[in-house]
Amino acid sequence: MKINNVLIEDTYCEAFSAYFSRIIITAYNKHWLDICAKETTGYGTSTIHCDSEAGIDVYVSPEETPDNRPGVALMFFAINKKKMDSIMLNRIGQCVLTCPSTACFDGLNLSMIPESEFEIKTGYKLKFFGDKFEEKLQDEFPFEAWRIPVMDGEFVIQNTLKIGKGIAGGNFFIIGKDQASTLSAAEKAIKAMKGIPNLITPFPGGVVRAGSKVGSRYSFLNASTNDPLCPTLKDKIDNSLLNQGENCVYELILNGANEDIIKIAMRLGINAATNSLGILRISAGNYGGNLGKFKYNLHEILG
Fold it and tell me: pLDDT tens digits for 13-71?
């Protein structure tokens, strides 16, 4: 298959299930909203070492937020169900509670397996920071919340947050003739996917340069550089997956609330990437079924 004269390989990406939280942060204005969002989702690229894969989902209008202020939805994905409580407590407690003018609410509105949803008592636990000056809000919102006194007024947080079951690790590779054209294509792909609710691309700017493979020649590592896709190793190894003239590869990784969202985003992103000059091939990462049970064939998605 070709799109805009770019070869689309007949392959699939392999993804896996993960637990996730989706929260709504509100603030005095977009300036402080952006600062809070970036701080709270920082160091959230890969569960290989980060506590969670985190990112900005979509911005939310004041008409759609519980306190009628500008809002942003953030998402956090992790493999271990039991760790979601501490992940959210740490990130909200250190980055949202401390940020001027913010409030925090549950924002989960979609999940792959609704019956597996559960709640964590993040707001209830953070209320102890109020040192017995905290106040329970029962009539201001259609849910229980807490008002915690802070030095610029008060911090409002919903009592409980929902945890859903979603998809992590959806991906595709953009393979081009040089860094400039391939990076331009990756930027177009990210822009095309921006604004899809319940989706994040957790790596820097949504683009991965240091793709990894499972395992390593070093016994103490469980992941290492994806050498078959490294252009500088093309003539040094026997298992290179790159052809002559292919000198740059970027991977885009997608996490979403369900499978449909991953498929829609992949379709939009791939189509946008093929509209760039210098792009030679689109492929995807899979590990023969050893990583996850979800497989998304590129031809099927684009067909």
Answer: 999 999 999 999 999 999 999 999 999 999 999 988 899 999 999 999 999 999 999 99
Question: Which residue ranges form the domains of the chain, and what is each CATH number?
Answer: 2-14+166-302 (3.30.70.520), 19-164 (3.30.70.520)
Q: Cα(262)–Cα(271) distance, rounded to whole angstroms?
A: 14
Say whether 114 sits in a helix, a strand or coil. Answer: helix
> Buried (b) or exposed (e) across 214-225, using 16+ Cβ within 10 A?
eeeeeeeeeeee
Tell me the C-alpha distance between 31 and 24, whole Å.
Answer: 16
Beta bridge partners of 294: 15
Contacts of 15 (CB under 8 A, 6+ apart): 167, 168, 169, 170, 171, 262, 291, 292, 294, 295, 296
Ramachandran angles phi, psi of 290, nearest 5°? -85, -15
Across residues 153-178, what is the average pLDDT?
98
- pTM, to two decimals: 0.96
With 90 as the cut, is the pLDDT of residue 290 above it? no
